[in-house]
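Why predict the complex rather than its parts? Because the way molecules touch one another can change local conformation, and only a joint prediction can capture that. The input here totals 637 residues.
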Amino acid sequence: MIKLEDLCRNFQVGDQVVHALDNINFEITSGEYVSIMGPSGSGKSTLLNVLGLLDSPTSGEYRLDDISTATMEDDDLAAVRQSKIGFVFQSFHLVPRMNAFENVELPMVLAGLAPAERKRRVESALERVGLAARLDHRPDQLSGGERQRVAIARAIVMAPTILLADEPTGNLDSQSGQEIVDIMEDLNRQGLTLIVVTHDPAIGRRSGRQLGMQDGRVSTDSDDEQPGRTAEL
Amino acid sequence: MRFADTNRIAIGAIVRYPLRTAMMLLATSIGVGSVLLLTSLGETARDYVTGEFQALGTRLLVVFPGKTETSGQMPGSLTGTVERDITLDDARALYRSPHVELLAPIVVGSMPVSYGGLERDTAVLGTTYDFLHIRKWKMALGEFLPDVDMDRAPPVCVVGKNVRTELFGTKSPIGEWLRVGGRRCRVSGVLATEGTSLMIDANEIVIVPVAYAQVLYNVRGLFRIIIQATDRGDMAAAKRDIAEIIKQRHYGQEDVTVITQDAVLATFDGIFDTLTLALAGIASISLIVAGVLIMNVMLVAVSQRTREVGLLKALGATRRQIIALFVSEAIFLASFGGAAGLALGYIVAAGLRAAFPGYAFMPPTWAAVMAFMVALACGVFFGILPARKAANLDPIAALAGRQA
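Output of the joint prediction:
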């Protein structure tokens, strides 16, 4: 469902061109659980932004569900993000003035869904992350783990096919982190494609497939270590 | 995104930042309130001045001796060198016009009047029986001047309220002899009408027959003639007739001025329209200032909420939706401020009315509507730039809290 071909993303820093992503090629099939690991500056966050259609590649091709994203306008990209992609961020990114219910409801409000339908879906999403009892709590009344659960509920409420998580446990203690990972893996088992950026090897090891990033390139891909395939180096 | 949801989110943001909201409401309401107050001042001045002239009655014409050219001064009364007096015969001749219903010649001046041991200076006005009906004055006691030919000078007089109390105290003045100048006349009545109109104070006056006043002051000419036309629609014809009759009697010279209430009112109306508009314009500047403040505050709101904008973009918000959210927030702030300003304006105006009874101090409806509309327009206009800034944010940078 995700296919990257010779994908590059360059940034102009002063008069220098930085190759944040340098000729990336890989495919991710539906339902996979992929972790992307690598040191800071290796390009893993840029890769996630490109996958999430928040950033556009400088060159190369990104095909999502066999559709080229290169020619899409801003509003087309927004529509794809809305329907197919859920985001989970390291710092949660909940709207502080809205309670848990309203935060989870937000993507559906933007999509213009009817209030009754929204209520049904919010309740079911919060149920799935085990937070059904805290609908009316604002983010500052929730613990870090609970906030991240609200964020996950928000990410899945539009029934996306891909869940992109950028260091989802980075701001959490190990106990809460483990719970968040469990929830996401549970969602993955139910068919959601899960792509996690992390530099925690413990989490990385749990995934079905690990991509290692180095200097804007994919340095290791656990799939390629299987017999009969060659690493792309 | 549904309209109701856009509004709900915008209101949510307004409620969430109470200090910011209070400042915006204050600025906008001062702007709207000052438009209301300044225009109500203009309207009050207009009401005061036109009210003075309205007292003339709509069918009234006034004839002054002397012809002013386009000097813009009050005809005859201040500077005009009078060629020829207007006489009682001139006044009587005016009845030849079918458009003249009633007229009253007027001679006015100041004289010492006394009763018993008390003496005071007061305005002594000579006129005829019809004066009472033309001016629609009322009598408190007794009768007005007798209905006799204007040449006759029976020694009777009518006194104003203050003259009565100062000279006669609580005693009834009817039938008493009042000394006016060097002569005596019998008091036949007391005026009920109070207040000043056309520079004549009904409280401080003694009214005598016009021929009597001519003798008192030793003059032949009249100060003016006030005329009531038969019909409001005939004012122009009446004015033409009067000018023509006097011209014939004055050997072909047009040496009098005829004014109508309409003409005077039209002039003042024009002046006060301009004045009120100018005041509204001045006050509108404070609305524009409020608008600029709205813009600044919304720009601050955008930078405060950069991460939120990034999140909205990640969640699939379009540019249009983000603009709608921020513009509707600005519109809500402006309209709440506008409503507060209307309340402020009307409350202060009510306070002024209580403090200065007798003056209108009523903000005109058009000013209220205009001020509110301008406030709304400011909200839209000054809300668009910050909203576009928000919509143009790069989602990745915005999520990281950067505006680059």
